[in-house]
Write a structure and sequence with these properties.
alpha/beta; Cobalt-precorrin-4 Transmethylase, domain 1; 3 domains; 12 strands; binds iron/sulfur cluster
Length: 279
């Protein structure tokens, strides 16, 4: 049995960078505490916990002598200041793509303009970005939600890094129609999710079975599974190599493998090794 890997798979740039920063802090002998789970993958979280990393849910839980980690989603300036006043050190692992959205939002607000951020208002990334312009920014999930906003003045339109391009551009067009003054549109969508989907889609057309490695609750992993199923009926979402059912591989000559953006390389290697041993 031949095992083929999708070209784009596993950790995205921002998650890999955050994990590296945590490991560097551990290497310095620091007591490392992350505000919220660093990534949505139980196995990788388990590995980090074994290395001594703990998760806190509020800045108030951090103590002097400890290192606080801001994860890739970022936080509001208020939360960052709170962590800085309590911890001995703050490791800011905000993904640079998210930092860009925060800076653009703050700049527009400083110029007295409104900001429309297209995204999910409950997502931690959006909560953090809104904190850079609490009185000027509005988060909307779709063009329809614009109807509930006050009159927009010279707005800037940006996006959550992981939303669909169509939702962003449709909403931006609708903002142009209702806003007063000039509307500036800056696409801040990160290509990591789309690249993984495109790569899985093209590989799934050439294999007899497909394994997507990722958490059951990871939305990007479930979306990858749906994409693979378009071309390959025998597509499965697994968390580890233990979830592979040998019976599913009967008659299979070529198997594809991909992984969600929170899946570490060591888990991918374990799955490939198990498939090769079965083959
Ligand atoms: S998905 Fe994109 S924006 Fe989000 S952490 Fe990964 S690289 Fe950064």
């Amino acid at each position: 049995m031949k095992v083929l890997l999708a070209d784009e798979r596993g950790f995205c740039f921002g998650v890999e960078r955050a994990v590296d920063m945590v490991e560097d802090a551990l290497g310095e002998g620091e007591t490392v505490r992350t505000l919220g789970p660093l990534i949505h993958n139980n196995e990788e979280m388990g590995r980090l916990e074994e290395s001594g990393v703990t998760t806190i849910s509020e800045p108030v839980q951090i103590k002097r002598g400890e290192t606080a980690v801001i994860r890739a989603h970022g936080v509001t300036p208020g939360v960052q200041n709170d962590l800085e006043s309590r911890a001995s050190k703050v490791v800011d692992a905000t993904c640079p793509f998210v930092t860009r959205v925060q800076k653009l939002t703050a700049r527009a607000a400083n110029e007295g303009r409104n900001v429309v951020i297209v995204g999910n208002p409950d997502h931690p990334e959006m909560v953090g970005v809104k904190g850079y312009a609490p009185d000027h920014a509005f988060i909307v999930n779709s063009a329809e939600e614009l109807a509930s906003l006050p009159k927009l003045q010279n707005p800037l339109v940006v996006s959550q890094t992981t939303i669909k391009a169509k939702t962003f551009f449709d909403t931006a067009e609708a903002v142009k129609e209702i806003a007063e003054g000039d509307t500036e549109v800056i696409n801040t969508i990160c290509s990591a999710t789309r690249d993984r989907q495109d790569s899985a889609r093209s590989l799934s057309a050439h294999v007899d079975a497909f394994y997507v490695i990722g958490g059951e609750h990871s939305s990007n992993s479930r979306k990858l599974l749906a994409v693979c199923k378009e071309n390959c009926r025998k597509s499965f979402l697994i968390q580890t190599e233990a979830d592979i059912n040998a019976a599913d591989l009967e008659g299979v000559e070529t198997v594809g493998v991909t992984a969600g953006a929170s899946t570490p390389n060591w888990l991918i290697d374990n799955v490939v090794a198990k498939l090769e041993s079965l083959g």
